[in-house]
């Protein structure tokens, strides 16, 4: 999927005006947040677990080449094959080649954000009958839309919209008026069951890749990944290189963090460990197992200021706690990774010049960092991206000159005090209340009123007066 051409502000405005989207977001609001909070209360050692998660990811990234070799050897020993893809195009090519060589006709897919990242769906759908098996992904596939959340891809859809989609695409299978959620789930299950049985190829992502056993770890709450990976004769897993962990011990720590942070569960309903293709004495499982490991800019991140972003385990907690994401949903971010993690990852993968609005879509309130299970300093990285945009002259010239002027003034305290004092006096003469339009503050007054200062002086003057009168505030 390409980054949308329309700029972030236009997409955000459209999202704010979309009544259906606002209704769906209001319904989802709080669900993930409350469940995560409860799950963490149940585990007093959660902060230690977060620190362990950070250490595991940093250690693995430090020795990534060693763990990559180890994973490949163990995958091969278990009967699997590794395909290394330097970029999105080679990842798509690797998957298409495997499908063609297997003479595939039907493909069943479990959710994979790495697949979304490399535009796998469009490439597959052009050649093969391809069906998503995760319920949320299935809904947005019918709607021909990208996901709007990394763990709840159809969170932007209301029940009414889903009913309409099913009525259109299921050819009256259940038909009729607005249906309850369990009825919609059963209807999708019936349709998908036939697709599972008819598929030649199953494609999944990977939550973790265990180096010392060559194991793929997958979590779902629907069990669809298990059917997608065990019924078809070929299984292809696609994942970023940062999904590696040294051993099962580290994988189990990460699984505990992931379930609690993503959905507020102690453990995800289906946690699957896949080691190799079907062996001679086994009754089920695929005849072939392929792992397509994607770099797509990750090696570059290993060596730059954004390396810690490679710790991300795609739990979605940062977006669930983000006031900007909560107001506009995921599509406004223009690419597959929304919210605070997307504000960093999209510029990394697509280029800062194509996504410079995303780091601005942040109030720097810090909640994302507080909830991140691997302690990624998201506000720090977002601020760093703003600096980079300034240095690389991506930030508009007027903004850059404004910031430069402010910095010049702020380094001269006496002049700063005199200028702000004068501005305060002039503005306070305009009256009380607020102004609707102000020169140089058009972006502010377009959306809200600008309060006029009172006659009590600037903050500094008021503070000094309080100090003198013995009040400590
Ligand atoms: S940045 Fe942290 S909180 Fe956000 S998805 Fe990644 S791991 Fe989860």
UniProtKB/TrEMBL annotation:
<keyword id="KW-0677">Repeat</keyword>
<feature type="domain" description="4Fe-4S ferredoxin-type">
    <location>
        <begin position="303"/>
        <end position="333"/>
    </location>
</feature>
<dbReference type="Pfam" id="PF02589">
    <property type="entry name" value="LUD_dom"/>
</dbReference>
<keyword id="KW-0408">Iron</keyword>
<dbReference type="InterPro" id="IPR017900">
    <property type="entry name" value="4Fe4S_Fe_S_CS"/>
</dbReference>
<dbReference type="InterPro" id="IPR024185">
    <property type="entry name" value="FTHF_cligase-like_sf"/>
</dbReference>
<dbReference type="InterPro" id="IPR037171">
    <property type="entry name" value="NagB/RpiA_transferase-like"/>
</dbReference>
<dbReference type="InterPro" id="IPR004452">
    <property type="entry name" value="LutB/LldF"/>
</dbReference>
<keyword id="KW-0479">Metal-binding</keyword>
<dbReference type="InterPro" id="IPR003741">
    <property type="entry name" value="LUD_dom"/>
</dbReference>
<keyword id="KW-0813">Transport</keyword>
<dbReference type="InterPro" id="IPR009051">
    <property type="entry name" value="Helical_ferredxn"/>
</dbReference>
<dbReference type="InterPro" id="IPR017896">
    <property type="entry name" value="4Fe4S_Fe-S-bd"/>
</dbReference>
<dbReference type="Pfam" id="PF13183">
    <property type="entry name" value="Fer4_8"/>
</dbReference>
<protein>
    <submittedName>
        <fullName>LutB/LldF family L-lactate oxidation iron-sulfur protein</fullName>
    </submittedName>
</protein>
<keyword id="KW-0411">Iron-sulfur</keyword>
<keyword id="KW-0249">Electron transport</keyword>
<keyword id="KW-0004">4Fe-4S</keyword>
């Amino acid at each position: 999927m390409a980054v949308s051409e329309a700029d972030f502000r236009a997409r955000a405005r459209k999202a704010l005006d979309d009544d259906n989207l606002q209704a769906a977001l209001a319904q989802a609001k709080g669900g993930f947040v409350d469940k995560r909070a409860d799950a963490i209360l149940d585990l007093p050692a959660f902060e230690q677990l977060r620190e362990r998660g950070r250490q595991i990811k940093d250690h693995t990234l430090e020795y990534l080449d060693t763990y990559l070799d180890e994973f490949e050897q163990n995958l091969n020993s278990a009967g699997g094959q590794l395909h290394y893809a330097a970029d999105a195009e080679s990842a798509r090519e690797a998957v298409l080649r495997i499908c063609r060589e297997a003479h595939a006709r039907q493909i069943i897919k479990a959710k994979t954000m790495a697949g979304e990242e490399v535009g796998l769906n469009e490439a597959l759908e052009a050649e093969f009958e391809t069906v998503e098996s995760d319920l949320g992904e299935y809904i947005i596939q019918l709607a021909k839309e990208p996901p709007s959340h990394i763990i709840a891809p159809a969170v932007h859809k209301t029940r009414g919209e889903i009913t309409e989609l099913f009525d259109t695409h299921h050819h009256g299978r259940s038909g009729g008026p607005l249906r309850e959620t369990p009825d919609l789930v059963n209807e999708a299950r019936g349709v998908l069951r036939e697709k599972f049985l008819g598929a030649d190829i199953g494609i999944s992502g990977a939550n973790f890749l265990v180096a010392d056993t060559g194991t793929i770890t997958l979590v779902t709450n629907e069990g669809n990944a298990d059917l997608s990976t065990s019924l078809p004769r070929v299984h292809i897993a696609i994942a970023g290189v940062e999904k590696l962990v040294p051993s099962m011990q580290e994988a189990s720590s990460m699984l505990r963090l992931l379930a609690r942070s993503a959905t507020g569960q102690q453990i995800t309903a289906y946690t699957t460990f896949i080691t190799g293709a079907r062996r001679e004495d086994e009754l089920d499982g695929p005849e072939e197992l392929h792992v397509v490991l994607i770099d797509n800019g990750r090696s570059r991140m290993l060596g730059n200021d954004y390396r810690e972003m490679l710790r991300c385990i795609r739990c979605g907690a940062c977006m669930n706690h983000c006031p900007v994401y909560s107001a506009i949903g995921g599509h406004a971010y223009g690419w597959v990774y929304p919210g605070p993690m997307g504000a960093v990852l999209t510029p990394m993968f697509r280029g800062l010049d194509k996504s410079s609005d995303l780091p601005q879509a942040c109030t720097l309130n810090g909640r994302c960092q507080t909830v991140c299970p691997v302690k990624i300093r998201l506000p720090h990285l977002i601020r760093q991206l703003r600096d980079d945009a300034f240095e690389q002259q991506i930030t508009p010239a007027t903004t850059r000159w404004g910031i430069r002027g402010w910095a010049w003034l702020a380094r001269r305290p006496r002049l700063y005090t005199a200028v702000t004092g004068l501005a305060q006096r002039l503005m306070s003469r305009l009256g009380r209340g607020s102004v609707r339009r102000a020169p140089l503050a058009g972006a502010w007054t377009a959306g809200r009123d600008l309060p006029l200062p009172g006659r009590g002086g600037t903050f500094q003057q008021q503070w000094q007066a309080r100090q003198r009168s013995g009040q400590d505030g």
